[in-house]
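Quick one from the shared queue. A colleague (R.T.) flagged Invasion associated locus B family protein as missing a structural entry in our internal table.

Convert sequence to structure tokens.
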Amino acid sequence: MQNVIAEDRPEVGLSVVVLKTADRKARILRILAPLGVLLKDGMELYVDNNNIGRAYFTRCFSEGCYVEVEIDEELMRILRAGKAAVFALRESADQDRVGIPIELTGFGEGYDALP
């Protein structure tokens, strides 16, 4: 798990978790964003400055709103090989996206250590 904040917007932070499902048949990337983000735009993922894609918020609770993505073989390969990722989201329609950096160094070793 990583808890990170935007370098230029310290009030905007994310919690990022990678997990294996209980049946070990799926791998999930789960991102918790703060309440108040623009839900309809979803969140974009960039790895080493390459746009990997966009995912949409699935639900919100009192602690924030979640994006969940199943990690397929291609995304796992990208995350293992990457050095840095940026999650980009918007707080409102009239604002630019806020980019929140995530360090990927050690991702593969950390994932392999999961039970």
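The chain has one domain: 2-112.
The longest strand covers residues 13-20.
Added to the table.
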